[in-house]
Amino acid sequence: MPRYLPYLLLLPATVFLIIFFLYPFTQVAIESVTSNGEWSLANFQKATSHWKFGEAFKNTMLLAALVVPIQLVMSLTMATVVQKLQKGRSAILYIFAIPLGISDLAAGLIWLSIFEQSGFLNSMLVGLGLIEQPILYLSYQSPWIILFAIVLAEVWRATAIMMVIIVAGLGLIPREYGEAAEVFGATRWQRFYKVTLPMLRPSLQTALILRVILAFEVFAVVIALGGTQMPVLMSETFNWQFNLQDRGVAAAYAMVILAVSVLFTLIILRALHVPKEART
Amino acid sequence: MSDTATVAPSVRKAGRWVFVSGIVLLCVWTLLPIYLLMVNALSTPEEVNGFPKSFIPSFDLSSLRFFLEFEGVLNALWNSIRVAVVTMILSIGFGAPAGYALSRFDFPGKEVFRFLVVMTRAFPLPLLALPLAVMFLRVGLDDSVLGLALVHTTLALPFAVLITYSLFSGIPFELEEAAFTLGCTRFQAFRKVVLPLAAPGIAASAVFAFVISWNEVFAAAVLTIKNRTLTAFLMQSLDWSPLHLKFAGAAALVLPALIFIFAVRKYLFAMWGIANR
Amino acid sequence: MTSFKTFLGAVSGLALTFGAVSAQAEVLFWSTQAQPVEETQKMRDEVVAGFEPGVDYQAPETGPWLTRAQAELSAGSGAVGILGGLHGDLTAVRGGLSDLGDIDISAIPADLAAFGKLETDQQKYIPWMQATFLMVANKKALDYLPEGADLNALSYDQLIEWSRAMAEGEGSPKFGFPAGPKGLKHRFFQGFLLPSYSGSTVTEFRSAEAEEAWGKFRDLWQYTNPASTNYNFMQEQLVNDEVWLTFDHIARISEAFNSRPDDFVAFPVPSGPKGRGFMTVVAGMGVPETAPDKDEAKALIEYMLKPETQIATLRATNFYPVVAVDLPEDVPASVKASGPAIEAMTSAEDALPVLLPMGMGDLNGQFNQVYVDTFEQIVLAGRDIRPTLEQQAEALRALMNQAEAPCWLPDAPSQGACPVN
């Protein structure tokens, strides 16, 4: 087979990304390391020395650290549960996949209507007679409840994408593998842990990388539920770009997001390395 | 299934019960927020602002009607569909060959390519929108369906590449090799052996592309004027609108997406055919 | 296999098929104002509809608005005919606005028109409409009004007392403040609280009087609904009864009056030792250098300044005219409520008008941020007032020096950059 075949296959995507991503990206990247027309790290200094930077960074990491593991477990559960189903499989799968179609803006709106003081949660609790007065959940005095609400909303909104990738991956694992393990007396858990998970590695890798990267760009849901009390890297990027109108600092923030994403992508690639034999 | 044969019937029954209630719980978890959105969208403004809220809508259509009668909403819907379909085609057309190459070959620059692809999702689009808009204005792609679809493709392409990569990785290469020994060319082997197996997954990543494009608002707001998409049309002013219209607008946006996913659910999950072969 | 060449070919082919928009006669009015869908719709149907040969009124969020404006200016060509926005929005693109000196603006008061020069010797934008901020109370809140307090001559101390009584009487705080991400909190500190106590926005930023003002606000905050950090438009919380008493921009409380006209009252902002500080905000219309047809855009601006268009704009947006008009009887409930309150506020004996930040240019947003940061540190994070003011005064001084902006009212005129004492 011709040696240039892989390159030929990569060419369209490469050319496309060079024009529509690399070219504009380079301009923004240059903006982040120049100030008044000279090379300088002033933008990064300005970004990191602002008192909100640390908090935004911490919140972003914390959210990702809380949300992604929950989503991983949930999506694996959903996918395996669906696989076990005899009847109604496609209906259940459709239901599980529904949040795929919900934009983050709409998701923020929905969860705000649940958690706000005159929202559905309080309506239910008052209706059941569990509380007398509506409780204030999203208060700046209780950042942990805000965090909890954001985690719930993010888990709800973005688990489906991992689930669908994992479902697709599960579908490719030949049945014989599990049956063989069964013959050798493996328990259900052993089969999942020793056969399914390793076979699922490529899909897990993909699902985790995509999800982690998107988690670092979490924005609309956080703004809706956390207001000004939960600055994240992306909201600060917006703030510097459009409110404070300092494109250099905004670009610096974006570079930070990129750097963190690249770092975690490397970690995931290494941790879930797909050995060559898995591909043959 | 014979795997539970060694387990006592009572345990088996209990397990069954946990299993079913687990599924019910997951369904409620997924559907309840959507249901609440619909309740709000189908209530009168007074009910939306009132407390305590009813969990059963009064089926007041006035808020929804406001959007349906909004001038140009059908046009925006049509634009959204066109942009999303072009995005779907472009991202699979560019992404699937790359995913195949990544899964089947070892070659210098492979890791670099994967990074470039991942990077595109790791950088905030709203900052890229400015240089992209300048470029489009100069080239004449401004305010066109294709221009916006190209931007949305940069968002969807990483998904397409990575998902198809993991799909192809999961299909044993021996299958193709077997086809070679039977006299197939590489392309024939791909078309007759790999593609049928991967097609459902490819369809799934196409659905992603569609949904990503459907929900993207920032680039759509910057790059379209006459050809507004439904999202740019409804969503960007929602934050500033009274509550009942916020919910009606969100519902008007969510509904077509749900219908779309419903319509393509067969493709999205047809891979079950493989598992049960 | 697709190659670069055929790809480009496909692009141009598709571009034709999908029809990139060609020159149109309609004027594109790209505006940050009237963003709520209903207001946008009214702007189209009732305000600009009368202009021949037609107007495409678009009201995106500030982010897309600014991005497109900047993109068109740096591409050197574009579709936008008129850029509409607040003083601060237009400041951000002032380098690309053309001179509108040939439009007759004699009907606009000279001091208002002067804002539109944006510190140049050209008329960069034409004032379009103006607004201010008011207090609103649910009528249920009036039961708690402190004895002897007059709604039209309220003091900050009485406001605190009122909010305390309400919080204690109702069991939860009923005063609300727009401290959310889109809330206009910075205006309250710049234009209302600080001037009322220190008679200054900039110069006396770290004075003992300013310290007192922040202390008062901290007192008030005890009786403020803690969800306020999520509040952007107080009309929402007024309508759903989460809040009974609040302060906000008149366009952001209009929905309360229009949906429940009998339940709310509007009244002037409170006063402090130095007077009743209040700020008026101005929206304007500019024509970018890249406008497809500048003459038509200018004709649209002239149309927007006609008294009948200005009244229609008031109905649509709750922003008041910039030219003298006779208001008809049948204005919306929100206008009926806000009109007398504004009149009472501006004509009060202790009225202390505060101007919008002037001469800050690109630093406008960062200037606002100083006040927001001060608020978040003192009130939300609970840091000590004195050291916070010292530290933020440094930031403020650096900004003033960088912008070389002279003082504006109520600060005393300065030679060179406005000092921070």
UniProtKB/TrEMBL annotation, chain A:
It comes from the Bacteria. The chain crosses the membrane at residues 7-25, 61-79, 91-114, 144-173, 208-230, 250-272. It is a multi-pass membrane protein. Residues 57-268 form the ABC transmembrane type-1 domain. It is found in: Cell membrane. Gene3D superfamilies: MetI-like. Keywords: Cell membrane, Membrane, Transmembrane, Transmembrane helix, Transport. Belongs to the binding-protein-dependent transport system permease family. This is Sugar ABC transporter permease. It comes from Paracoccus onchidii.
Automatic annotation (TrEMBL), chain B:
SUPFAM superfamilies: MetI-like (SSF161098). The chain crosses the membrane at residues 17-38, 81-103, 115-137, 149-173, 193-214, 243-264. The keyword Cell membrane applies. It is a multi-pass membrane protein. Pfam families: BPD_transp_1. Keywords: Cell membrane, Membrane, Transmembrane, Transmembrane helix, Transport. It is found in: Cell membrane. Residues 77-266 form the ABC transmembrane type-1 domain. Belongs to the binding-protein-dependent transport system permease family. This is Carbohydrate ABC transporter permease. It comes from Paracoccus onchidii.
Automatic annotation (TrEMBL), chain C:
Keywords: Cell membrane, Lipoprotein, Membrane, Palmitate, Signal. It holds the Pfam family SBP_bac_1. The keyword Ribosomal protein does not apply. It is found in: Periplasm. SUPFAM superfamilies: Periplasmic binding protein-like II (SSF53850). InterPro entries: Bact_solute-bd_prot1 (IPR050490), SBP (IPR006059). Residues 1-25 form the signal peptide. PANTHER family: ARABINOSE-BINDING PROTEIN-RELATED, POLYGALACTURONAN_RHAMNOGALACTURONAN-BINDING PROTEIN YTCQ. Belongs to the bacterial solute-binding protein 1 family. This is ABC transporter substrate-binding protein.
